[in-house]
Amino acid sequence: PKETMAFAGKYEFEGDENYETFVQKIGLPSDKIEMGRNCKIVTEVVQNGNDFTWTQHFPGGRTTTNSFTVGKEADMETMGGKKFKATVKMEDGKLVADFPNYRHTAEISGGKLVEISTSAGVVYKRTSKKIA
């Protein structure tokens, strides 16, 4: 189906909700919290069928890349830089991954990349607008 191809592109951070509460909840160190606050992260998604390369470019040149195939276990890295294994699933056109202490979903909605992370009832939502 075409909708699973909708992720490819480059997206720039536009806004978020509940950042502070969420990152404290997952125990992010305060220097990382500062770094990520209103951070103009550019997310670049390359998609080939069920294979994804998901790269986040941070201001200052730091990047994080997670490569995965939907339905197969992959080596991933968290917001805080911890390495772990996860199996990304596709549910109703959303990518869903269980990180060690939060659940992450990503979807394209109204042409924007909407990412939602949930940890113990705290919901962090990040929206990015398509720039390429």
- Count of discrete alpha- or pi-helical segments spanning 4 or more residues: 2
- Tell me what portion of residues adopts beta-strand conformation: over 45%
- CATH level 1 class label: Mainly Beta
CATH architectural grouping:
Beta Barrel
Query: What is the average of the pLDDT values?
Result: 90
Note the overall shape: globular
Give me the CATH superfamily.
Answer: Calycin beta-barrel core domain
What count of domains describes the coordinates?
A: 1
Give the tally of β-strands: 11
Spatial order of the strands in the main sheet? 4-3-2-1-11-10-9-8-7
What is the name of the CATH topology?
Lipocalin
Helix content: 10-25%
Q: Unreliable runs, pLDDT <50, ≥5 residues?
A: none
Largest sheet: 9 strands, antiparallel
- End-to-end separation in angstroms reads 22 Å
Write the element-wise H/E pattern from the N-terminal end onward. Answer: EHHEEEEEEEEEE
Tell me about this structure.
There is one protein chain. The protein has helices spanning 19-25, 30-36; strands spanning 9-17, 42-48, 51-57, 63-69, 73-77, 83-87, 89-91, 94-98, 103-109, 112-119, 122-130. It is mainly beta and 132 residues long. The chain has a single domain (9-130), classed as Calycin beta-barrel core domain (Lipocalin), CATH 2.40.128.20. Strand 10 (112-119) and strand 11 (122-130) form a beta hairpin.
